[in-house]
Amino acid sequence: MKMTNPKSNTYVTKRSGERVPFDPERLKRSLQRVGAGEEDVAAILKEVEGMLYEGIPTSRIYRKAHELLRRRSSGASARYHLKQAIQELGPTGYPFEKYVGALLAYQGYEVRNDQLLEGKCVQHEVDVVAEKGDEVIMVECKFHSEQGTKSDVKVPMYIHSRFEDLRSNLEHYYPGRKMRFRGWVVTNTRFTEDAIAFGRCNGLYLISWDYPEQGSLRDRIDLAGLHPVTCLHSLTRKEKKELLQREVVLVKELLDDPALLESLHLTGTRRKKLLQEARELFY
After folding, report:
1. For FRET with 156, which of 8, 111, 143, 195 sits at 20 to 30 Å CA-CA?
2. For residue range 146-170, what is the model confidence (pLDDT) as tens digits?
3. Are residue 100 and residue 220 in the same domain, yes or no?
4. What is the pTM (predicted TM-score) of this model?
């Protein structure tokens, strides 16, 4: 059913400052994507449309939709909160690196994090090394705590030179084997157009929240169903931070081993509620 909107001419303001017409279909798709039911989608759209005014920030629309969805479905709400939850993996980049490694492991790769490798000229620290068959992927993760931050062309230029040095010494690590090598750069936000052009020109695979069109970070998370613990509304900010410090990054880890929650000293009621919310993520 096509959603109609009496305020279709209302312009909203994106984080970049760009003003665009409010698109109810886009909001509808984002709610459906996380598993919200038709009745919930219709009710949320109606309430959001009622609060629109000229120039309203898209961040305010997002917060309102998230608040309304949270009242109706904790699991769908956690999935809708995913982009922000990824940013809450900071302030250090290590939880994000582990998260990216987990996404590759889901695809059948043997994954190692935080590796020191000798290139032809110098030693390099590599965030993620993933191997499958004759393929080896080396990944640099660029984590940003602010949504509006973009990785510009200097990022892939610098990483390309590092990976080329490592490629030149690949036989040292795989003697007698002919390996296919690829360098990746993964960010939780976005790349500039120049960064994407440089990566494409030099065979460097770039992944951001919504790039490339197929195989973006969001697509890979949807496919794997691997959600960070920062998605969970039942955890306080302090509790999330404690889990991350103990290198517990995935909701799946809590479901596989609920004993990981013991250090948080949750009441029986809170523990039960948290695990129920965690299970609802896997709809």
Report:
1. 111
2. 877 899 999 999 999 999 999 999 8
3. yes
4. 0.77
